[in-house]
Amino acid sequence: MRFLVRDRILGIGDDYWIEDDHGNGVFLVDGKAMRLRDTFELKDTEGRVLIDIRQKMFALRDTMVIERGGEPLATIRRKRLSLLRNHYRVSLADGSTELDVSGRILDREFAVEYDGELLAVISRRWLHVRETYGVDVVREDADPALLIAVAVCVIHLAEKEREE
């Protein structure tokens, strides 16, 4: 499954649609303004909140938390620093599952893996539309909403880090 995201630097209060490869809106990323911490909601076409994304307060390093139905689903933080590639660790709430996100985040060229197996590829290479990137969910049994939320989080964290 491939999804298209109109790229813009995420700011608080920004809203944008994530489309399927036919141009139909599938998910709405709703940035919440007037909050103490960065907060986003991933909604379906009916406006139902599928996933909440928020910045974790009082963390030693920038951390984002993904929740579904008010329950923690995953925590995302920077793994290590490299000059050419960024690495983020996604710890799922079950405590034993970790996803690895690595690549050139700011260039929108990165992958999400579990135990060395590719789950999703985020890339601008397939597209000819400026300021758009694709989220290609490789595994059919993967959760597209979670993988899109992970992409939104790591891009947001990388953009914040670049600003600082």
From TrEMBL:
Gene3D superfamilies: LURP1-related (2.40.160.200). It comes from the Bacteria. It holds the Pfam family LOR. InterPro entries: LOR, LOR_sf, Tubby-like_C. Belongs to the LOR family. This is Uncharacterized protein YxjI. It comes from Streptomyces griseoloalbus.
